[in-house]
Amino acid sequence: MKIETIHGPGNAAAHVTLENNETLVAEGGAMIAMSTNVSIETTTHQKRKGGIMSGLKRLLGNESFFLNHFTANSDGAVVTVSPTLSGDLKVLKLNNDRIIVQSGSYVACEKSVEMDIGWQGFKSLFAKEGLFWLNLSGQGQVIVNSFGAIYPIDVDGEYIVDTGHIVAFDETLNFSLSKAGKSWISSILGGEGLVCRFKGKGTVWCQSHNASAFGRALGKQLKPIKR
Amino acid sequence: MSTTELHPKGYDFDFAARPDFGFATVRLKANETIKVEASAMASMDTNIRMKTRMKGGLGRLITGESLFINEFTAENGPGEIGIAPGSTGDIEHIYLENETIYLQNSGYVASSPEVELNTKWQGLMKGFFSGEGLFLIKCSGVGDLFFSTYGAMIAIDVDGEHIVDNNYIVAFTEGLDYKVESIGGYKSLFFSGEGLVTRFQGRGRLWIQTRQVPSFATWIRPFRRIQKSND
Question: What ipTM does this complex have?
């Protein structure tokens, strides 16, 4: 599987070239164009496990319910994917390691990558951001998107990232949630709220902009929904 | 991607800030005219005079475009005009030589006066499901055409077949026939999130955009305030 990203960091898209029988698993709605030698199957989860319940979990996590499996019927099939919001795409390569991806940042991955949804522990703590987390492992490439640009931080020791700016991170890192300032009052007044403190050795991929913050800024300007 | 291109025919122009904030600067010779979508003129020098004309007729009302196209003419010598599409994204140019291009209804930015603009009835089945409105703008003749996208633009040379999600179609050349269909089975039709797709067939060029406004609008909806009615 060959993945080429174009037009980053503003409005990136990715051309994915598949050999015969290779399968790309993509977020519902991510495909924008494709060649005709591709067959599509829609599932609630990756095919080998899960089912309607894991699909429901995805729905609760504010993500679309379904994953599409794009399988090439001959060599050289092309599927072009892109995310909803403006920003960049990054291809992460898994070689028997594990990464945690923020649900809104997942675009697509090779079928050989194992996906677990609703990673407990983090999920409840992050409920406020309306996010949940995907645990990806195994072998293969993963396409993630960022709102704004994407930048890696190689942590060796400790590092702090605002929860709204996390795209993905190596599972080798330990994390804890804490307040950004010394006291809760300064943290809340400072507008930073919860931050994630990473410990250990590994990479955190961050996004330059916080989608929820943008949503709130714009949402205030829109006509209210009448109930 | 090059930001400056010179074309031997047609307008002397260049592009800046592509693909995220595409902007065109056109240098008109004395007495040369350009047609520009209403409100797309960003800046111009004082040699240029603007005339508002109803071009394209009532059809443009139906395509969702504003009815007015303005004509800008360099009157007392050469003049320069800066043109910016309404939304952020990419801008593209093509010089038509007795060719026809179909534009998605909000893609038109500017053209030379010799290019004819017509709305095209897509046919009930084709248009009804496409989610892009019932009309495409048919641009034909000889001359320059500028069109824009929300998001970046990808050109695809089709020789055979290619499938595009309906909301991402920007433009395509006349040599391509198209039909709207669903992908996969019924489950995919309703649940895949891909909606309906268009299958292009034949030989020609097709432009798609890397982002689309409707899904952005859907994304922002949950952030709207909720106002409780007092009843």
Answer: 0.85
